User: What shape does this take?
Amino acid sequence: MQPIRSALAYIALSAAILVLVPGMAGLGAGAVSLAVILGWRDMRRVPRAVFLVAGLALVFAFGRDPGLIGVAAGNMSRLAGLILAVMLLSSVLGRTRDLQQISASLFGGKPLVRYLSLSFGTSLVSIPLNFGSVAVVGSLVGERVRTRGDSPATRNATRAVLRGFGVSPTFSPLSISVVLTLTLLPGLGSLQLLLFTVPFSAALVLCGLIWREPETVQQTEPAEPTASLAPWLRFGALILVICAGVFLLSQWYQLSYAHAVTLSCMGAVVGARLLAWSRKTNPPLVNMANVSNELAIVGGSAFIGSVISGAVLGQISGDPNVPAWLWPAIAACVPWVFFGAGLAGVNPIVIGTLAGGILGVIWPDTALLGLGIGMVTGWGVTAFGTPFAANALIMERLTGYRAMDASFLWNLRLSLAGLAAASLLASLVTIALL
Assistant: This one.
């Protein structure tokens, strides 16, 4: 059964790559659905629930407006292909010696330096690796917990990894949050959005210095081996090439942002394969049989959000008569909606699809940046501040620190500060552009 599930994942990825060919969206959505159904027994409860709700959304669309199904299937195929491409890239890069050297070197230095290197290092690694960055760096934290015991140093390291990955939805041009936002708000430019969100993410990580535990000299970690400059340069060059490919494909060739990210990531994967062959090595093809959970959450959430937003938009006629002061108020509420839904276990993809799909249509064109900032920053705070976020659950498994403790005891005050700042920024930008 596993070879069939892996083949279906590759079919879904191929359909996302060839999305411009007629019929590929339906093929991709069908492959995703079959892969989820075949992996049902191995899935967790939350992905199962998301996919069941997606099935109900399909039944609803059949009765309400069958035209919604094609649009929803297209979104499902594109976003599933995106997450598969990123996961494939993560798997390929995870085998490199450079990444292991970089990850180990992040633990060196004094407490302040270690916290900053872990948080910003995890953010950097997360650009091409997505959740793979939590698995790579988090496994090193878990090993220290097992060998040296629980301490303020290991708890601060866990904080740094969670926060470092948590801000990646805010600044990474390859993150699904940025991709979804730019897809649903086509009038918004990527550079325009990142110009505001990158400084926000850096400020959020720096604010995390306030909310960490003091470490004594005895509790400070021993000196760690440092990576030479070469691995950092190679890894940084790879990130720049991938990001440059995204901007080239989306800006010059006018491809959708999601399609551009998928193609750019796959270009790096193919390049790594060709490099391996040139060195007389033939690494096995990555097995993607165990991606049912991710496909159910990403694909199911995209389908649900698309159907709901399409149904709601069908009830909106003409230009809504909204007072000007209400737009900045709505922009200020968007990050809190993401966070509140995350606390209830709702995946940010659902909220992002609903917010962008519904508000993006009626939002004033000149002030789309304010809505985009609210969506991306709210997604980021939700990623590190809620106990049901995937990175919090991964760190719980790797380190033994409960996701509830990490969210409510360690990160709650930082989350509230980040939400307040995100609301203020989104609101002020909306006011300035109206």
User: Anything to note?
Assistant: The CA atoms of residues 187 and 365 lie 7 Å apart. Residues 2-433 form one domain. The chain is about 75% helix and 0% strand. The chain has a mean pLDDT of 86.
